[in-house]
Amino acid sequence: MAVPAVVVKRAYKYYGKQDKPGYKPVLQYLDMTVEKGIIYGLLGASGCGKTTLLSCIVGRRKLDSGEVWVLGGKPGEKGSGVPGPRVGYMPQDIALVGEFTVRDAVYYFGRIYAMKAQKLTEQFDFLTNLLDLPSGGRLIKSLSGGQQRRVSLAAALVHDPELLILDEPTVGLDPVLRERIWEYLAGLARGGTTVIITTHYIDETKQAHKIGLLRDGQLLDEDSPNEILRKYDCDTLEDAFFKMALRQHEISHRRRSTLTTSPDVIPESSIVNDSRYQSREDFNVVTSSTDILTSQEKEHKKNMSKGRYKAVLIKCIQQFSRHPGGLIFAVFFPIIQVVAFFLAVGHDPIDLHLAVVNDEAAFSSIGLDICKYGNMTTVTQREDETCEQYMLSCWFLEEMEKRKLYSTIYKSVEEAKYAVTKRQLYGALRFPRNFSDALAVRVAEGHAPDSVVDDSTVSVWLDMSDHQISNFVKMQIHKAYESFARRSMRACGKNEELVQIPVRFEEPVYGKMDSEIVAYMAPGVMVTIIYFLAAIVTSTLMISDRLEGVWERSAVAGVRPQEMLHVHILLQSSVILVQTFEMMLIAFVGYQLPSRGSLWACGLLLFLQGLGGMCYGFLLSVLCSSYTISFFIATGSFYPMILLCGILWPLEGMPNYLRMFSLGLPFTLPSKSLRDLMEKGSSITNPDVYSGFLITVAWIIGTLTLCFIRLKYRKT
Ligand SMILES: Nc1ncnc2c1ncn2[C@@H]1O[C@H](COP(=O)(O)OP(=O)(O)OP(=O)(O)O)[C@@H](O)[C@H]1O
Questions:
Q1: What residue's CA is closest to ligand 1, atom 23?
Q2: pLDDT band at residue 328 using 50, 70 and 90 as cut-offs
Q3: What residues are in contact with ligand 1 under a 6 Å CB criterion?
Q4: In whole angstroms, what separates CA 78 from the centre of its chain?
Q5: Best exposed site among 68, 278, 516, 700 by fewest CB in 10 Å?
Q6: Dihedral of the CA atoms 69, 74, 80, 85 (nearest 10)?
Q7: Taking a C-beta distance cutoff of 8 angstroms, is the pair 81, 163 a contact?
Q8: In b/e form, how buried is each residue of 147-157, taking b as 16+ CB within 10 angstroms?
Q9: Closest approach atom of ligand 1 to CA 92
């Protein structure tokens, strides 16, 4: 009895969820046997389940029921041929990194299989001739579809595997090249290699030793081409397949009219079933090779693992270094973002104009121009020690101007307010006609009638729709009043403090008297930038590898998920380290932010935040099937995290329940920790500081755990 290389028994495979519409089997009651050393041609129309069947054979998808045996074991189990070097797999998609050159693509798989450099070079040269490959230095993404397909085939053939699984390798190739490929495969089969090949070209399969016709997920028949012609009494395979399809149609029609229970269960009698392998015991002949395989694998295990690490590391470096957008994103974006923040945020607004109605000046002897003559404002002390003041409104306006609040003169309050409504100005001010006199009385008397209070009061109408600017204008007018009052009291020989509010702000415990909002926001901004960049880079790289099929193909070649993860973590950590260094340099050296605490602790916290972002990126990549969904989730989750973390608005202003929630988010406590390290010089042993480290580590562990759970229970 011929030894089987691949056996599929009573295979059922569904996509999607049972309770959803359109849930139907893609493979149903499928039996298939591929003997060693043959070419097995799997034929079928588009969508009949060929790719699904192959992906179950290579272990990338799991059957819902039934069994698959490959080279003596179940795919994924110890001792089976897959994943690993015993199989060469060419998926239907190109599944090569676009940034690879032709040579890189073939060498990548050669390295995974730990091929010696010289052998790899020889094989590459041989395959270049055989498959007429484009020049070795050309990038995959610059090749035509047919050229990419040939490189993909070369990558599957490079290591002379025992079993070749080729999903439509000849599509779109010219007939001479197709013929050459079939001849080569026939030669391999004569040497003992088993080949499973799917194709749409029926005439090609005449060269196969055995063909199987798949239709609607069922294998209608499998046999040698001659035997099929004989069995169905036809001259051509097309006719034979037509008869088979008709027969399947009749059977399913009969079944529909007689079966009332489970419509998916096909009566065994109606299915061609010539498989000789009915139970696990029948596979003894197959499984006998397992032990030999295991000892061989043990011998090479270490070398193989090294080879895989090397291959994946080189792949990632090539991918990264040949992707200018990625490089810019990873290295320059943090600089651009941090510098943009420092340039744009926290500086005082300038060029603010206010509408001023100065009735005091308007009714003077020379009218509104009086403030232009500095010597017209006078303050003199009378003999009774009271003060005589004239045109103090001009001094007030001068103090405002020193604070970059400029006046545009209007005649009436209505006109001034109208100008504000036209958004030409940020507010309107009015000085009453008797401003200086009333002010002198107000200060001298201590008690004064309402009319004096009114006459000595500057009225202000602000455009409060712009919160930041109106608050800034308010603060500047208060400060202008403080200096104005000091100046006029000084001129009058009085104690300046008398007219200040009776509250004195002494030297602050932490920070500076005129602390800028930049110093408050910067820690949070740095934390969010490093987290966000790492999450986006990681999820994008991971999803692109998966969508391009590179991940799947590498996994079939034997690369383990943890090996890919280790390499990614290694590279991404180096990038995060560079980003951390860049940010600290800009913040502490470039913009002189306070660095009272340990710089090492600041760096460590930023680095850990980067790792947290990377883990979040892993989670996004395993949860999302496309870039779009990943971007939606990323932006959808980042905004709330930033809004709630306290850098835009203090937590103290939030409702209690929201405050509790915010404290658990990845940016809130770490931002505060970093601020305390920088501004207060707190030590890492301080609970306010180490809580930021703890929450960062908790998020790393939490997101990684979710990734593993998702990967473990994902339906494949
Ligand atoms: N991930 C998936 N989720 C849901 N349905 C899927 C998925 N992959 C394939 N299918 C469906 O399963 C059926 C079989 O698809 P499959 O790719 O195996 O067919 P195929 O014979 O290889 O087709 P082709 O020759 O066009 O590549 C199709 O109806 C397809 O729409």
A1: 47
A2: confident
A3: 15-16, 26, 44, 46-52, 92
A4: 34
A5: 278
A6: 80
A7: yes
A8: bbbbbbbbbbb
A9: 27
74-84 average pLDDT score:
78
Q: Tell me how far apart the alpha carbons of residues 322 and 316 are, in angstroms, rounded to a whole number.
A: 10
Alpha carbon distances (Å) from 512 to 89, 593, 676, 679 = 66, 12, 14, 10
Rounded Cα gap, residues 297 and 275, in angstroms? 30
Q: Is 355 helix (H, G, I), strand (E, B) or coil?
A: strand
C-alpha 629 to ligand 1 mean position (Å): 22
Residue 76 has pLDDT above 70, yes or no: yes
**Greatest CA separation for the chain:** 135
- Cα(510) to ligand 1 centroid in Å equals 64
Tokens representing residue 136 in the block: 């070795």
Task: For 589-610, write each residue's pLDDT tens digit.
Answer: 999 999 999 999 999 999 999 9
For residue 713, CA distances in Å to 133, 250, 614 come to: 41, 39, 22
The tens digit of pLDDT for each residue in 204-230 reads 888 899 999 898 888 888 999 999 989
For the chain, how far is it from start to end, CA to CA, in angstroms? 34
Specify the pTM. 0.79
Ligand 1 test: best mutation among 13, 14, 26, most atoms within 8 Å of CB? 26
pLDDT of residue 252: 66
Q: Whose CA is nearest to atom 3 of ligand 1?
A: 15
C-alpha 590, offset from chain centre: 29
Handedness of CA 97, 101, 103, 107 (dihedral sign): negative
C-alpha triplet 65, 66, 69: angle, nearest 5°: 135
**Ligand 1 centroid to residue 43 C-alpha, Å:** 14
Report ipTM for this prediction. Answer: 0.96
CA distance 676 to 509: 13
User: How many whole angstroms separate alpha carbon 606 and alpha carbon 675?
Assistant: 12
Q: CA torsion 41→245→242→146, rounded to 10°? A: -40
Confidence category of residue 193, pLDDT binned at 50, 70, 90: very high
Q: Ligand 1 centroid vs 26 CA: distance in angstroms?
A: 8
From the CA of 716, how far away is ligand 1's center (Å)? 13
**What sign has the CA pseudo-torsion 400, 403, 409, 414?**
negative
Rounded Cα gap, residues 61 and 6, in angstroms: 16
**349 upstream amide cis, omega within 30 of 0:** no
Residue 44 Cα: closest atom of ligand 1: 21
* Ligand 1 atom showing the smallest separation from residue 55 Cα: 18
Ligand 1 centroid vs 170 CA: distance in angstroms?
19
pLDDT band at 294 (very low <50, low <70, confident <90, very high): low
Q: What count of Cα atoms within 13 Å lies in the side-chain half-sphere of residue 332?
A: 6
pLDDT of residue 238: 85
Distance from C-alpha of 239 to C-alpha of 247, rounded to nearest angstrom? 12
Q: Map residue 167 onto helix, strand or coil.
A: strand
Q: Is the pLDDT of residue 263 over 50?
A: no
Query: Which residues does residue 88 pair with via DSSP β-bridges, in sequence order?
Result: 164
With CA atoms as reference, report the closest residue to 616 among 695, 674, 532. 532
